[in-house]
């Protein structure tokens, strides 16, 4: 197995850094899937036991100026690596003004993803910083554990309000309860509510957009399903701290954030920025 790539555009380096920074806020360990066309960062916890599922897709052509991959075989030209995004973030902290970054799969004492960062200097001499990030190679027999998650049929699809506003609301609500009820309808309305024995607090958002399924927004809604009442709310009870963590971690300033609710099953957040997409599946908690 071999991999090497080079990012030379400062804007791409900074965008790449923000994406990795977002992932490091959301997850401690994930799987990086490297293919000829894309990088995927994957977290696959068991939804039935309260875990979340994350699928982040980066087209390599959007970032890399040079890209060479030799996977485990000709038929399976891919590489799966387990790593800690926080280690990537530390390596990229030195690269904010870099002239280029080279990323290679190496083997030193153990497999590593090696970052070579070429930093600007006042002289003609180059200054290169090297970071060796330990990784674990995932055997091919386990690859099926990291397939793209199936998207259920949603009851409601709605564009979310500004994430900063949501974060401020949720940060206050999480002091009252461990759970928040997120509800929305097809009439552009969304509600957040926490309930305790002592108090019930809710925040309402109106005039939001219910997007038609285009522009790569995942959906499995049947085209021949009956039209639901647009004023009827679909609601989901979710872990408020995981929701707050999701809102706090965003550093990519997405151009589109879609919330899909499948009652009694899952809340699915879809973030899109340029060609980069992030799907975040949060399981519903029964009351």
UniProtKB/TrEMBL annotation:
<dbReference type="GO" id="GO:0044778">
    <property type="term" value="P:meiotic DNA integrity checkpoint signaling"/>
</dbReference>
<dbReference type="GO" id="GO:0030896">
    <property type="term" value="C:checkpoint clamp complex"/>
</dbReference>
<protein>
    <recommendedName>
        <fullName>Checkpoint protein</fullName>
    </recommendedName>
</protein>
<dbReference type="InterPro" id="IPR046938">
    <property type="entry name" value="DNA_clamp_sf"/>
</dbReference>
<comment type="function">
    <text>Component of the 9-1-1 cell-cycle checkpoint response complex that plays a major role in DNA repair. The 9-1-1 complex is recruited to DNA lesion upon damage by the RAD17-replication factor C (RFC) clamp loader complex. Acts then as a sliding clamp platform on DNA for several proteins involved in long-patch base excision repair (LP-BER).</text>
</comment>
<comment type="similarity">
    <text>Belongs to the HUS1 family.</text>
</comment>
<dbReference type="InterPro" id="IPR016580">
    <property type="entry name" value="HUS1"/>
</dbReference>
<dbReference type="GO" id="GO:0006289">
    <property type="term" value="P:nucleotide-excision repair"/>
</dbReference>
<feature type="region of interest" description="Disordered">
    <location>
        <begin position="211"/>
        <end position="230"/>
    </location>
</feature>
<dbReference type="GO" id="GO:0033314">
    <property type="term" value="P:mitotic DNA replication checkpoint signaling"/>
</dbReference>
<keyword id="KW-0227">DNA damage</keyword>
<dbReference type="Pfam" id="PF04005">
    <property type="entry name" value="Hus1"/>
</dbReference>
<keyword id="KW-0963">Cytoplasm</keyword>
<dbReference type="GO" id="GO:0009314">
    <property type="term" value="P:response to radiation"/>
</dbReference>
<dbReference type="GO" id="GO:0005829">
    <property type="term" value="C:cytosol"/>
</dbReference>
<dbReference type="GO" id="GO:0000724">
    <property type="term" value="P:double-strand break repair via homologous recombination"/>
</dbReference>
<dbReference type="GO" id="GO:0000723">
    <property type="term" value="P:telomere maintenance"/>
</dbReference>
<dbReference type="GO" id="GO:0035861">
    <property type="term" value="C:site of double-strand break"/>
</dbReference>
<dbReference type="GO" id="GO:0005730">
    <property type="term" value="C:nucleolus"/>
</dbReference>
<dbReference type="GO" id="GO:0031573">
    <property type="term" value="P:mitotic intra-S DNA damage checkpoint signaling"/>
</dbReference>
<dbReference type="InterPro" id="IPR007150">
    <property type="entry name" value="HUS1/Mec3"/>
</dbReference>
<keyword id="KW-0539">Nucleus</keyword>
<comment type="subunit">
    <text>Component of the toroidal 9-1-1 (RAD9-RAD1-HUS1) complex, composed of RAD9A, RAD1 and HUS1. The 9-1-1 complex associates with LIG1, POLB, FEN1, RAD17, HDAC1, RPA1 and RPA2. The 9-1-1 complex associates with the RAD17-RFC complex. HUS1 interacts with POLB, HDAC1, FEN1, PCNA and RAD9B. HUS1 does not interact with RAD17. Interacts with DNAJC7.</text>
</comment>
């Amino acid at each position: 197995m071999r991999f090497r790539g080079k990012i030379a555009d400062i804007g791409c380096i900074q965008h790449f850094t923000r994406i990795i920074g977002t992932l490091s806020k959301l997850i401690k360990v994930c799987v990086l899937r490297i293919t000829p066309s894309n990088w995927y960062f994957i977290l696959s916890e068991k939804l039935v036991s309260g875990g979340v599922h994350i699928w982040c897709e980066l087209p390599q052509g959007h970032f890399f100026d040079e890209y060479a991959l030799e996977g485990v075989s000709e038929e399976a030209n891919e590489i799966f690596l387990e790593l800690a995004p926080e280690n990537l973030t530390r390596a990229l902290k030195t690269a904010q003004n870099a002239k280029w970054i080279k990323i290679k799969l190496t083997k030193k004492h153990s497999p590593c993803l090696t970052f070579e960062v070429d930093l600007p200097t006042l002289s003609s001499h180059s200054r290169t910083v090297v970071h060796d990030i330990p990784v674990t190679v995932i055997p091919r027999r386990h690859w099926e554990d990291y397939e793209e998650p199936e998207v259920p049929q949603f009851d409601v699809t709605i564009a979310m309000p500004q994430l900063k506003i949501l974060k401020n609301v949720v940060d206050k609500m999480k002091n009252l309860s461990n759970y928040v009820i997120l509800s929305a309808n097809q009439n552009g309305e969304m509600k957040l509510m926490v309930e305790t024995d002592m108090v019930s607090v809710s925040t309402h958002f109106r005039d939001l957009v219910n997007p038609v399924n285009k522009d790569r927004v995942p959906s499995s809604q049947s085209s021949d399903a009956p039209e639901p009442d647009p004023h009827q709310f679909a609601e989901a009870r979710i872990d408020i701290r995981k929701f707050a963590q999701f809102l706090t971690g965003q550093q990519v300033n997405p151009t589109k954030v879609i919330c899909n609710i499948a009652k009694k099953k899952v809340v699915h957040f879809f973030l899109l920025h340029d060609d980069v997409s992030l799907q975040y599946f949060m399981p519903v908690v029964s009351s």
